[in-house]
């Protein structure tokens, strides 16, 4: 069996508390896979520093200097998880045959890498890591997370249920991913659009080893909204449908009020009118805001600004033999 070059891309933002343990565990995994000739000796773990404010980058530099199978890149500033991940994938595909992306917090079970590679050698070009259960999540986290995936499906977005960004992708797939030029990134929705032969690996998600989650509720809600507005126009169609229904109801009420007024039956009061005006004004403001979100995204897309800028690439330094 051919031993392809594997790169594991790990986005990092303020991960100084967990990086050494992550390195320890991934080193064992890489060495085992290399010794069993499942992957090439040229395989690497590529940390992506997403403009961290702590010592994350200095730790990555130290790890890259002391460990054979580790390298890293650093973005010029914080660009967010999806852009950092994309930067890592696009860089890694220059050196690798197959790439696996995962988070730095050790919540993704690294033992699932073995099964992902098995499926890759069977001919699958995308393998999604999917949580088998959410028993360790709080009721609120479990309900909102599963609700997000169901709502995305309802909005017509092709998305893998309970899949985050733990996935395997071949170099061929990433070459096509590069053709997707949108600035508003939602990789969980983009990969299913690429196509090719895909499969799923189920795994049990672990507790975070150290540090705090980089996705509090506010960020999760923003992420969900970005996903919906980047892949579905159903919210706008809903506004249109709601407006038509409201118009029909209003027209019927108008006729009813005229008839009641003719028979001298006064049904409307000042309070009722004020309530109706406030309600409709509030709805109009919400709908204008939703439409504004789509216009704003279109505005960002037309500017074509770079999604990330790589300031340091330790892999190039390693290949030149300077580290």
What attributes does this structure have?
15% strand, 51% helix, 323 residues, eight-stranded mixed beta sheet, elongated, single chain, alpha/beta, Spore Coat Polysaccharide Biosynthesis Protein SpsA, Chain A, 2 domains
Oligomer: single chain
What value does the average pLDDT take?
80
Low-confidence stretches: none
Sheet with most strands: 8 strands, mixed
| CATH-scheme architecture of the largest domain | Alpha-Beta Complex
Order of strands in the sheet with the most strands?
Answer: 7-5-6-4-1-2-3-8
- The rounded distance between the terminal residues' Cα atoms is 32 Å
What is the class of the largest domain in the CATH system? Alpha Beta
**What is the CATH topology assignment of the largest domain?**
Spore Coat Polysaccharide Biosynthesis Protein SpsA, Chain A
Rg from C-alpha positions? 25 Å
Q: Number of helical runs?
A: 11
For CATH, the homologous superfamily of the largest domain is named as Spore Coat Polysaccharide Biosynthesis Protein SpsA, Chain A
Brief overview:
The protein has helices spanning 19-35, 56-66, 81-92, 112-121, 139-154, 171-177, 187-194, 217-231, 234-262, 270-303, 314-319, and strands at residues 6-12, 44-49, 70-75, 98-101, 126-131, 163-170, 198-203, 310-313. With 323 residues, it is of the alpha/beta class. The protein folds into two domains: 6-212 and 306-319, Spore Coat Polysaccharide Biosynthesis Protein SpsA, Chain A (Alpha-Beta Complex); 234-303.
What would you say this structure looks like, in words?
- This protein has 323 residues and is of the alpha/beta class.
- It contains eleven helices and eight strands.
- The protein folds into two domains: 6-212 and 306-319, Spore Coat Polysaccharide Biosynthesis Protein SpsA, Chain A (Alpha-Beta Complex); 234-303.
- Helix 1 links the parallel strand 1 and strand 2.
